[in-house]
């Protein structure tokens, strides 16, 4: 869009701001029905994301043994370990490829079907994925697992955009950050659940690993049973369908009261202003300075989350615990303890995010990770000298997880929904989620070769990135705590004129 388009959007934004100065979004209580909707949306969506991220870790050797047997039965020749590793790596990485595709289509699905119906229809992919994975062993086809992992990846990519969008739009302004953190909290819980169920004495056995993969159907069933009882996002109903009565009814359901006049007035002011703004395209997001600034912030924070090194630390944790003198199954259980700390600190961040603010927690998280990563690198260089250095490495790993969970783990998922209005939110979310999955894929692809090439020094790369992200957040990311969407828009409009 050209310069004239910029002026048009700026004028309508000014009208939007004027309307909001008259009506300020009121605070609201946390009701039982809101809690029910949050559970229905988050447990059925982000559980897929987390569970399928960690489900292949513990039973890796068992699955690789099955892949080797399947290849041998087909060809009559015993495959090389390189071939087996390649197939397993493809099983793992195709999940991220699916996530990129799912993330890229979030905007289309959110606009066409709505947030709630989009989440419900997305479970069709889970059912197809489970059919593929559950039948793979009987049919001796590892290709079916690869296909199933791809489908569940598309599902998770869509969930990563739709669920935070729905949660942000049904939340009162004073609880928006805390509710948004729930998405990451469920991810951390589901990763831990996958790790526990994947233990050798539970489902990580030769006979039961296929059941472990098929368990991903459980959260889908939960969502299909619970989410239909919840209304669609009131903001979507008002802005996209233009049904004020239905939007008021939905808002009353979430708030547990019929007294929602003030909040409805704010929503109507936003909706009326948005009618003056054409549907936001990717081109507009890039060319319009008022939209480009929050887009750059959203994409950078999503990239920062993945390039922070959290996945590398999680992957390398068993090696580090081994350096500390842990033997046998002890590194596995230490990794589970690390997952538990991740869950616990994400719960802490849920309460902190509305007190300390988004920007503060991001700065504390990335700043703490930078210092900790530098110390971890030094500790690993001296780990061979004795168990003391190894023990310090374990401590540094746990501190790293704490720093990540405080802010960088949860905030990026809902920050995108806070930075954009109803018109731009689906398109911006699509780009942000796609970028997040792409960065995730790159880290998974590049970390092992880098580790093999430069050893412990690989963490210095993450140290540099963390410092860069810290500086970016300090200079560019605004504080959105307790601010209406229109106040945030006004901030970006002011920045674009500077």
UniProtKB/TrEMBL annotation:
Domain of life: Eukaryota
Record GO cellular component, one term: plasma membrane
GO molecular function: fructose transmembrane transporter activity
Membrane topology: Multi-pass membrane protein
Keywords of this entry: Cell membrane, Glycoprotein, Membrane, Transmembrane, Transmembrane helix, Transport
Record carries keyword Transmembrane: yes
Protein's cellular compartments: Cell membrane
BP GO terms, sorted: fructose import across plasma membrane
Transmembrane parts of this sequence: 86-110, 142-163, 175-197, 209-230, 293-321, 333-353, 360-383, 389-416, 428-448, 454-474
Domain Major facilitator superfamily (MFS) profile, residue spans: 38-481
PANTHER family: FACILITATED GLUCOSE TRANSPORTER PROTEIN 1, SOLUTE CARRIER FAMILY 2
Membership in a protein family: Belongs to the major facilitator superfamily. Sugar transporter (TC 2.A.1.1) family.
Protein's name according to its UniProt entry: Major facilitator superfamily (MFS) profile domain-containing protein
